[in-house]
Design a protein that fits this description.
By secondary structure, the chain is of the alpha/beta class. It has five domains: about 150 residues, Beta Barrel (At1g16640 B3 domain), CATH 2.40.330; about 40 residues; about 70 residues, Beta Barrel (OB fold (Dihydrolipoamide Acetyltransferase, E2P)); about 180 residues, P-loop containing nucleotide triphosphate hydrolases (Rossmann fold, 3-Layer(aba) Sandwich); about 80 residues, Helicase, Ruva Protein, domain 3. It is built from 24 helices and 17 strands. The protein has a seven-stranded mixed β-sheet. It is found in: Cytoplasm; Nucleus. Belongs to the AAA ATPase family. The 26S proteasome is involved in the ATP-dependent degradation of ubiquitinated proteins. The regulatory (or ATPase) complex confers ATP dependency and substrate specificity to the 26S complex. Its main location: cytoplasm. One of its GO terms (molecular function) is ATP hydrolysis activity.
Length: about 700
């Protein structure tokens, strides 16, 4: 009694498992197939091959005649010639005659194993040629013999046209095939390659494009569980001992998942069988089911239904394929969008270059209104409200900066470097002169005063802080021409580490209105940026004469330059180490506002040298000259003529030139006498053209 109850319980459990696995639908199909069909009047003998063959689904793009797999079987096509077929399918156009036991349905492990072996070999190959791995399905090797290639690989390596291509196996045998560019696939010789190498479902192939029209193909059998033994027989490099040990460790770590993988493969085969047979004719479906049931290797799910997994791997595969297809579409869209943006960038750069092409109008930047607009001044004196090119760095747009304007719209298209300014010769730092205090004869008092006013505040600024007084801001050097004013200013610059900016007063007078005051501002701005600095303005009387009622525009412009100079000197911050030295020989004509304390705190006079100063100047000028022992410099020093230091230097120079003229290496007293008369003694008679 207990046996009967246990038997009934087992039957109920098996029935429930059959329903969960969908076996009931297969049973209904088998029931419909086994029904009796009415006999025809003239029955034809039916070949047994019809019951032992199965036709996998084919791609509608291929119209290749299907032949048997090495073993030709006589097929009676009379039964199938009258069957109705679809316009979009070639299922019944040609018929495959291959025994079902030769058609392999690869398991999940076999496919994954072959793919892993191919990918591992691809990583070890380290070839510079492009390659990809392709897994075989039934339509590739059993029916239509059409092999689709990855679209991205075809786009990158093949033209969009049909061409002949050569397939080369590992043994060097070549197969001529046809690459169809519109469909990105192989046809023609691919069938012979598949037949010769007995490719099955689940096998993996590594395609290496060794030449533009030649594929090197490596075959990895799925039934060998990703083992490279057969690959080694064909000359492929086997893995090293260390790599085999790593693989053994990985396999030992995966033992606990082996049973679950077996379940997935069983359910996958059974699910594929059901989805595959529902599109076949009743006869073909019955043959397929019978073969799967009778073959334990082909149908492990029917042998052990208790270990079947409820997870639908086929549905997951389709979902992943859809996700992959959607990802490919997104990738194509992003790449197309990237190409469009690159083209737009190139067009924009070309447009900017065209806008910035010469000739352009040079102007002066006044102020920024917003990020896209500003006010600029042109050389004609007019100000414009203009647009600013988006590619311009806004940090370079500072007041008084030189900018380039478009010749038609006056739009600001570029910021000119400081070297492009016409007044750069004034603003550039002059090279430090090599004149020292020893090169200046006499002028001891003047040296001491200018050291206290200029050099000491730059080198020992803390002394003035300790005492609690402000150092002098500016120094005026005045006196007759040739008394050493400019040379003493050069000596001060040489004995300090300050930047030396030398400007002549007449250079501030420019053609256009407003240029002179702007240059004054730029000179003082450059000095502040390079502090400590010394600004030496020679011949300052050219712009600093006393103001009067000007009648012409030129005089008014000179007075504007003077007012800007007064403003800059009055606005000096005492913390900024910038000193101003001015030199002139017409101190009586300078404006009183410039001479007041606070602007020019120290005024140093350079008179004509006295007897002692003459002696010192003569000694300095003749220190490097080859004089005769007969030359008595005291004779020239004691003469009562009032001569400047420049005239003394000219006397010595003229004496040397006279000795050179006479082809002598020694300067005699008569050479000095002639030089003295040439520079000091004025001619008693006027020139002929004055008479």
């Amino acid at each position: 009694m207990a046996y009967e109850e246990a038997r009934k319980l087992r039957l109920q459990e098996n029935h429930k498992r059959f329903q969960d696995l969908g076996i009931s639908q297969i049973s209904k199909t088998l029931t419909q197939i086994t029904k009796k069909t009415p006999q025809q009047r003239n029955p034809r003998p039916i070949d047994k091959a019809l019951f032992a063959t199965a036709e996998p689904r084919r791609s509608s793009r291929v119209r290749t005649v299907i032949s048997s797999y090495r073993d030709d079987v006589a097929v009676d096509t009379g039964r199938t010639s009258n069957l109705r077929r679809s316009r979009h399918s070639s299922t019944w156009a040609t018929y495959i005659s291959r025994p079902l036991h030769e058609c392999k349905f690869a398991s999940y492990e076999e496919k994954v194993g072959a793919l892993k072996a191919a990918e591992k070999f691809q990583s070890r190959l380290k070839s510079p040629h492009p390659s990809f791995v392709k897994s075989m399905v039934r339509s590739h090797v059993y029916s239509c013999f059409w092999l689709g290639l990855p679209s991205r690989f075809c786009v990158d390596n093949f033209p969009e046209e049909t061409m002949e291509i050569v397939l080369e196996d590992e043994e060097g045998e070549e197969y001529e095939a046809v690459y169809i560019g519109r469909r990105s696939g192989l046809s023609g010789g691919w069938k012979r390659f598949a037949l010769d190498h007995k490719l099955d479902d689940g096998d993996a192939l590594l395609f290496e494009l060794v030449e533009p029209k030649r594929f090197k193909i490596y075959v990895f059998k799925g039934n060998e569980n990703a083992n490279l033994t057969s690959a080694g027989k064909r000359g492929r490099a086997l893995p090293s001992e260390e790599e085999e040990e790593d693989e053994d460790v990985e396999e030992s770590g995966d033992e606990e998942h082996s049973s679950r993988a077996t379940k997935r493969s069983s359910v996958s085969n059974l699910t594929f069988l059901f989805l595959y047979t529902k599109d076949l004719s009743p006869i073909m479906a019955s043959a397929a089911v019978a073969s799967m049931v009778l073959d334990p290797k082909a149908s492990p799910a029917l042998m052990d239904l208790s270990t079947a997994d409820e997870e639908d791997l086929y549905g997951r595969l389709k979902s992943l394929e859809r996700q992959l297809e959607f990802t490919d579409i997104q990738e194509e869209y992003v790449k197309d969008e990237q190409k469009n943006l690159k083209r737009e960038l190139l067009r924009a750069q070309e447009e900017v270059k065209r806008i910035q092409s010469v000739p352009l109008v040079i102007g002066q930047f006044m102020e920024m209104v917003d990020q896209n607009n500003g006010i600029v001044g042109s050389t004609t004196g007019s100000n414009y409200y203009v647009r600013i090119l988006s590619t311009i760095n806004r940090e370079l747009l500072k007041p008084s900066a030189s900018v380039a304007l478009h010749r038609h719209s006056n739009a600001l298209v570029d910021v000119l470097p400081p070297e492009a300014d016409s007044s750069i010769s004034l603003l550039s730092q002059s090279e430090k002169p090599d004149v020292s205090y020893n090169d200046i004869g006499g002028c001891d008092i003047q040296k001491q005063e200018i050291r206290e006013a200029v050099e000491l505040p730059l080198t020992h600024h803390e002394l003035y802080k300790q005492i609690g007084i402000d150092p002098p801001r500016g120094v005026l050097l005045y006196g007759p021409p040739g008394t050493g004013k400019t040379m003493l200013a050069k000596a001060v610059a040489n004995h300090t580490t300050a930047a030396f900016i030398r400007v002549v007063g007449s250079e501030f007078v420019q053609k256009y209105l407003g240029e002179g005051p702007r240059m004054v501002r730029d000179v003082f701005r450059l000095a502040k940026e390079n502090a400590p600095a010394i600004i030496f303005i020679d011949e300052v009387d050219a712009i600093a004469t006393a103001r009067f009622d000007a009648q012409t525009g030129a005089d008014r412009e000179v007075q504007r330059i003077l007012m800007e100079l007064l403003n800059q000197m009055d606005g000096f911050d005492q913390t900024v180490n910038v000193k101003v030295i001015m030199a002139t020989n017409r101190a009586d004509t300078l404006d009183p506002a410039l001479l007041r304390p606070g602007r020019l705190d120290r005024k140093i006079e350079f008179p004509l040298p006295d007897r002692r100063q003459k002696r010192l100047v003569f000694q300095v000028c003749t220190s490097k000259m080859n004089l005769s022992d007969e030359v008595d410099l005291e004779d020239y020093v004691s003469r009562p003529d009032k001569i400047s230091a420049a005239e003394i230097a000219a006397i010595c120079q003229e004496a040397g030139m006279h000795a050179v003229r006479k082809n002598r290496y020694v300067i005699l007293p008569k050479d000095f006498e002639k030089g003295y008369r040439a520079n000091v003694k004025k001619p008693d008679t006027d020139f002929e053209f004055y008479k």
